[in-house]
Write a structure and sequence with these properties.
The protein is α/β, with parallel strands linked by helices and about 425 residues long. The protein has two domains: about 280 residues, 2-Layer Sandwich (Transcription Regulator spoIIAA), CATH 3.30.750; about 80 residues, Arc Repressor Mutant, subunit A, CATH 1.10.10.920. It is about 40% helix and about 20% strand. It is built from 16 helices and 18 strands. Strands 1, 4, 5, 6, 7, 8, 9, 10, 11 and 12 form a ten-stranded mixed beta sheet that branches. The protein has a three-stranded antiparallel beta sheet with strand order 13-14-15, with no helix packed on it. Strands 16-18-17 form a three-stranded antiparallel beta sheet. Strand 5, helix 2 and strand 6 form a beta-alpha-beta unit.
Amino acid sequence: MLLYIHVPFCRAKCRYCAFYSRPGCDDAAMGAWARAIDADLRAWGEALRGEAELAPGFLADGTDGTYGRHGVFSSGRGPLRPRVTSVFFGGGTPSLLSPALLGRLLDRASREFTFADGIEISMEANPESMTPEKAAGFRAAGVSRVSLGVQALDDSLLAAVGRVHSRADALRAYEGLRRAGFDSVGLDFIWGLPGESLASWRAQLEEAATLRPDHVSCYGLTLEEGTPLFAERDSLDLPGEDVQAAMYAGCGELLEQHGYRQYEISNYALPGHECRHNLGYWLGEDYLGLGPSAVSSMRGLRWSQPADLAEWLAAPRGQRPGPELCEELSFREQAEELVMLRLRTARGLPLEEYRRFTGRDFAADNAALIAGLCAEGLARMESGPEGPRFALTRPGMLISNAVIEQCFESIPNAPASA
């Protein structure tokens, strides 16, 4: 199981951001949030333990004390406890927390859940709130991986989207994280910003590659409804579609020249430094999300927490929200997610996994589509230890939404063997 904790605080709201957060850090609100997260961790640990003990059929054959295909429950030598392979602090701005507070939350999580050997503990950080002292403190608290949201290495671009840090702040924060000795340090960028050129984007990537981060995320700017940039969309000086396509393609080519490997539509890593938490999402693992607006998905159920701090604080701890925030995924919805999530990855969709879940032959059902995409260099069929896979190439990922929608048309409403 993956554990996500949403930190809903930030210094200022970025002009493109649609995630739930409260600008202006308030000590009282942060304290109330931390106490509620502590209570949630305890309550969910108890709830999941109770569920396993009341329903022993959830357990596997007993040889390793694990539950299901993702090993959610692990008994070890003590009481049965849910097994967690990754913890991720997202936001908002988790680096606004003190290392002591984050450490206390990790201690609580380790008491309520079984931390897998080699567990990945990640946090997002912003340059303006990541000092060298904080970096050392977060590392001592147990954080192994940090994603630093630089977004751009150009002060004019940062100002255009409302970032409160500068290029110099980003470089100082990165150096502090390196000196602190984290297992992995990543840099997060957004391309296609207002006023950005192809040459500017390439120069920033070249500089980033020389810094040698372990991981690089490059997301295309999305104008989300309700954000200031969306309201100004008609007047923004955005790169044209051809330039944006060149930005995406050139990004992958440049990073590969520097030894990075693309493993997901927007993510690149040096070998062995892929983000295991996000890979877990794309591979369909169960996850528990805590904090305002956080989403959970377990055993075909998906629910979200209230996207309001006060409402979330008032909600009962350790319980799924009401039906308005909770849904049971149908067979077809789960099959669609299988296709959509796997086709986001460079490895693509294992056809045997699709056949086991749906009872259908994906290659046969989509023969014309696959042939056309492969002929145009937008997709490929390849073999691996688990059998054949269908994967999109980098040019194909640019049109992934359209391809995935076409794949959905062949998905049955029920397993073929039913």
